[in-house]
Amino acid sequence: MALRDEVFKAIDDERAYQQAKWPRSEGLSTTGEITLVRAYLRDFEETYQRENDDPNLDVPKECLHIVRKMAAILVRCMENHGAFMR
Questions:
Q1: Which of these, 81, 69, 76, lies nearest to 10 by C-alpha position?
Q2: Which of the chain's termini has less CB crowding within 10 Å, N or C?
């Protein structure tokens, strides 16, 4: 388990990494952003099947790296297209 502050820090660090690596990604449409998330979701599923040799493990560590990447992509999507309150 991680505290919410730790979770947001991990997402923020990933977001900074993505911004440095792909500085022009602000031009992606919402469809482009969600397509990337879906690609990472497929990667998550494939990694889970390949790496989950211990049925007592909730999720392999490599899968959690993918979750962090997806979260940061979704943050970027909200930065670029709006973040609306509930």
A1: 69
A2: C
Can you read off the two tokens belonging to residue 41?
Answer: 């979701």
Say if residues 18 and 73 touch (Cβ distance below 8 Å). yes
Query: For each of the chain's 86 residues, which pLDDT tens digit applies?
Result: 889 999 999 999 999 999 998 887 677 899 999 999 999 999 999 999 888 777 677 888 899 999 999 999 999 999 999 999 99
Distances (CA, A) of 74 to 18, 27, 35, 48, 50: 12, 14, 11, 21, 25
Going by C-alpha positions, the residue among 6, 5, 78, 84 that lies closest to residue 37 is 78
pTM, entire model: 0.88
CB 72, CB 14: distance < 8 Å: yes
